Amino acid sequence: MKVTTLPPLTDQRTEVLGACPHDCPDTCSLRTTVQNGVAIQVHGNPAHPATDGVLCTKVSRYTERTYHPQRLLTPLRRCGPKGSGQFEAVSWDSALRDIAARLTAIAARDAQAILPYSYAGTMGLVQSESMAARFFHRLGASLLERTICASAGASALEYTLGSKRGMQVEFFAEARLILIWGSNSITSNLHFWRRVQQAKRQGAKVICIDPRRSETADKCQQHIALRPGTDAALALALMQQLIQHNWLDHDYIAQHTLGWDALRARALEWPPERAAAVCGISVAEIENLARDYGQAGAHAAIRLNYGMQRVHGGGNAVRAIACLPALTGAWRQRSGGLLLSSSGAFAVRRQALQRPDLLGTRQPRTINMSTIGDDLLRPASADFGPAIEALLVYNSNPVAIAPDSARVVQGFAREDLFTVVLEHFQTDSADYADYVLPATTQLEHWDIHSSYGHTDVLLNRPAIAPLGQAKPNTQIFRELAQHMGFTEACFADDDLQLARSAFGPEVDFEHLLEHGFVHLPVPDAPFAQGQFATPSGRCEFFSAALAASGQDGLPDYLPNHESGSSDPRYPLAMISPPARNFLNSSFVNVDSLRAIEGQPLIEMHADDAAARQIQAGDTVRVFNQRGSYRCVVDLNQRARPGVINGLGVWWRKLGLDGSNVNQLTSQRLTDMGRGPTFYDCAVQVERA
What we know:
By secondary structure, the chain is an alpha/beta fold. Helices cover 29% and strands 17% of the residues. A six-stranded mixed beta sheet has the order 5-4-17-16-15-6, with helices on one face.
């Protein structure tokens, strides 16, 4: 069929198929209504089973974001002090010539002094790491270890199951018991919640395990409010009860698992009384949860999310929970098992997209994005290599979202750091840039998407022409490569070519062009016959690879770096889940959504507030050794005693004192995957 880039200019309304680009497991198929070249409305595609015509509040207002009056539509050059947000408009040619000259001079000394910084501002394979990765590989820049969200849980799944695979989301509707563990599904996984509703109508019991009484917990039959970072202790106690009551599938364990005897011995060390003391819940809650799980057998389903792995022992916690379905044989049925991520089902041709061969024999260092605060301030050394002299930020807002943000700000404020930011809006990070380059939104470019919540490939068509002088990320890096004299043919690939190269013949691209999505051929029950992608082919309770790296080969409970009670100065634990109407730092500047959220706040238990003479609505100072954050207190019964919930991620400039909750979070890393420990944070609160 003939492919047109954009719908024709006409008074008649047309529908353009697309895909939601945001960091959400639902990866919805979109239909954008266009009239006379203007996007009128974005709504869910009713033909896509996973989307079923429904969008979240955030994305349903996507036109408000695209046509926002503060949208960046021309290249900008800094004309005031760093952080002041003072810029002047310049031409694309002037901006790119100067950026290329600056990068060329730095690369002549050592290209590793140049660092890309990006994450999931778009999840698209084309506009994230295709042309951008080619550019940085050709340059020989430092590599970025992209850990900010999911690396601990991802590593845990790979050690245990062999890949990031799990249940098909639609089969949760057939489960008899659903454990929603560390997830606020109503706000962050809406289409999964619709499956939960189906299961509830058919008699399923739904239990939420979460330190916070979230909107999801409100709608479940039971909420277990454990202390942050104690999930592994709870999982081990569940194992102990499964063993004690013989709620086990001995045949599945014998045929399809590795390390059962060792795991059994460890689990028996965790009677409910011990776990209850660690988790801050009752013995009865543990015993009843184990009974529910054990008796549901192969029809017990667990939906994990990434919040519970953002602590010191996050990887071990995911490992422990991921062992549970193999103990009961829940993998035998499509209505049983576990889902954290489905991304391992997608055979993305990353080498074709990203061209690491452009590095040649060079082996640049790797810098962890979760420690950018410290790394921007490191001097050159034999261990670290050259100091970072240039930073190119795209699809991210590190000044707002990276931990220990006072350090991040200090690094971005360096006068000798050359910073380029590709953005839609003048974010906190853009305020510190030397150049801000206007990027297109999802309605204005091609892209192709995998998912981590279902197993469909989606195509995004541009619905409208780029506004102003905005350009796709890919085009910006193509033109920058040209200005730097890169002549390799791969820099001429257009976005449609890149989209076509992302997958092999298992994805029918012509079908994608016509329908907007393609179902991958995956089994209903991925591990019914074992066939795990681990070295042994079994679910590895004991991982020899972990043991060889110097870690415990069995899952275990690891206490938090900051327990909330180890330092008497900071007796409260703090977690920082996302505000309902924001997605990380995206949508914070959409007026209608920010109006719903109101203002930056913490949720606090009434007993903790009373002990500090704090009342609902008071402005408070939340602080620890890294800094302080002023916000308003909400006493809405969502916080458990000893824990506060600092909802994020507000832009710093929109906070009460020019900061946000990440002023308090730490750059310490998780036990595996080198991820951030956002929810492993001790603080004190006082009236401001």
